[in-house]
Every structure is written in structure tokens, then in C-alpha cells.
Amino acid sequence: MHKFQSRIFFLLMLAIVISSNGCKDDVTPGDEAGIVVDVDPSLFLEGTTVTTIDCTLSDGTKTTCYQIVASTPTDHDMGPWCPDNIADGAEAGGIWLENGEVYDVDGAFVANMANFYNDDTWLMYDANGDIYVTKTEDDCINAANPNVGVAYKNFCVECIPDYITELTQTWLIPTTPVKLTTSASFAGMGPGASGPSVRGIAFNGVEFSASAPVDNILGAYTLAPFDDAGGHINVHQGYHYHAATGVSTQVAQSDGHAAMIGYAMDGHGIYAQLNEDGNEPSDLDSCRGHYDDTRGYHYHVDAPGSNNFINCLHGAYIN
Q: What is the pTM of this model?
């Protein structure tokens, strides 16, 4: 076979192998020739402390990381979570995430829970319509326990900011993302998964958390609503988000792309689910990421009602 023909044959076979792979995780469009976008520490808001330290990433890369220390958000109020009475409107309570939908936890929602879940055990209010709500820090701790007892059955669990005034959280993300050849699962997701449990950090320093344990909450006949920003509190984790609802600080893009809302734990940017045209990008990989020449590789969060942000990491992270 002629050398030129051999070359063409080789390239055709290579193309067939690549196309048959079909794995978006391992091959990101533009990945090899594309840009890598550094983390911009100036995007973190007043109230967070950002310093640079030496660090080693999960793939062994020795580099620098931003250490971000924060407590509670400075760009929006926290709460409310639980309404007081079944006559209360949406402004008195937060939201609940169920089957991809976002529901207002107003008085009517609480009054209708037996029908909503098709279970007559639900009765979270007394004869006057007053809703049973946790009132103390001990109640908050006990009701959030995975082995919550019958004492908190049919309670709306509300942990308030006063319980975490002395609590801070510290996060580490690489100053420059380092792409992995295969994606890394989050802790607790799949066999051998050893990655972080936190998905990322908002610009106010609040974590984008793992999915809320909704089945455990509902199985104890408790309700632990999120506020309108998608966040709630426990005394160990502090205030944290389970949904991106557009309340926390966003950085608008000039080209119609979805707004930026924070950084993943691998240093890649996290953006809102939908672009300005109201559509989700059609080429997201299984981690919910893709590439463009402006933002490099980056993620788009899941729908607010999904109790999820992103599915895995395409970059190295801090062990």
C-alpha cells in the first residue's frame, strides 16, 4: 500500500475508534487546544477571606490553591423556612424539592401533606392550624439526627442562624484547574468513590452541598424546608445550599450564556442551568459540563427541583 494511502487508512481507523468510544466524559470538545480559565478570587464577596497556599491535588499535581473561609451569606437573608399556621402564605415559609419540582412551603402545602404524599400519617398542625415547628437548638439537633425519634414526628424542622454564629467553613480549590482524563465521582457516589462530598462554592462562600437526604427526612415524618435561596442550616455544616434558585450572587455573561454562580471544587466555573434564551446547553457531558472558548471547561447546575448541582468532577481536587 502507498504511504499516502496508508496514512489515510490510519486516520480513518482512528476516527472510527474515537467515534465509537462515544464517551463525553473522556473527550471534551476543544479540550486539547482549548483555554484553561484560572479562578478569579475577586469574584468572592466581602465577608469571605481568600488566601493562597501550596497544595497537592488528587492526581498528584503540586500547585497553589485558594483557601476560602466564610460563615454565612452576606448577599441575601437566610430563611424563613417553616410557616407558623396553615393559613400563612408563601412569604412565611421556604421551599421544598420533590420530583424535579419546587414547591412553596406555605400553610396550604403543610395542610395538604397527607394528600401530597398519599399518607394519612402526615398531620403537622393542631386543631387551631398552628404548625409544629422546632423551637430550640436542641430540637434542631435532635430532629436532624438520622435516628430521629417519635418525639419529632410531624414536625417542621427549622434551624436558625443564631445557632451557627461562631461557625466558619474553610474550602480549598486549585487556582488553575487541572483536567482529569476520566471524571471523578463524589464521595458516596458509586463503588470506590473517594472524591469530595461538597460540589462547589458560591461567591458568598456558601457550599453547594450534596443532595439532601430527603428520603430519611420524610421517612421520619419530618419536613426540613429550604429557604427561597435553596439553603437551610444544621449546626455542624452551617448554612448550605441544595438548589440554585437564582437568589445568591450571579455574574452575568455578555454573550447570552448562563450567569456564573460559583466554582466547583476542581476550580472549574459553575453556571446557572439555563442560558438567557431559556434553554439548557445541549452538549453537556455526564458531569453536566462542557467547553467553550470564553469560559473553558465549565459546569451548568441541574434544575432547582432536582436536589442536585453537578454529577461529578472533570478536574483534580484537594483530597
A: 0.88
